[in-house]
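#onboarding

Welcome to the new folks! Below is a worked example of what a typical request in this channel looks like: someone posts a single protein sequence, and someone else replies with the predicted structure as tokens. Don't worry about understanding the tokens yet, we'll cover that in week two.

Example request:
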Amino acid sequence: MNFFPEQAASDLLQKKYQTNLAPLEKITLSFYKDKEGFWLKTLVGTENNAHEFMFVTEDEDFDLLIDYLDGILEEFFESDREAVLPLDLSKRIFDGKNLWVKHELRNFEAEKLAKIWLELS
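Example response:
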């Protein structure tokens, strides 16, 4: 069976932080690359509501992103889910490399309804 790196990492983090998650919550990772760099998007929550963590590096350093994410999740859960990152992309240095990071609480159902309402206006 073939696994994308994000699936294997999602599974490991899900298992590590399982006791911190409510019954319907999960940790989901996705990676993509664009002209700005290599991105890691992480959702912690349900299909309707989730904390979204975004990380970007200049190079494809998968291990660096996962190490940084693991530390952020540990701090996040220890602080009773208090925001540990800024709302806007902000530069951090981790293991001597540049990272840009941000965090946002998302309500996907409300966002979907707002989009429909705006299209009808």
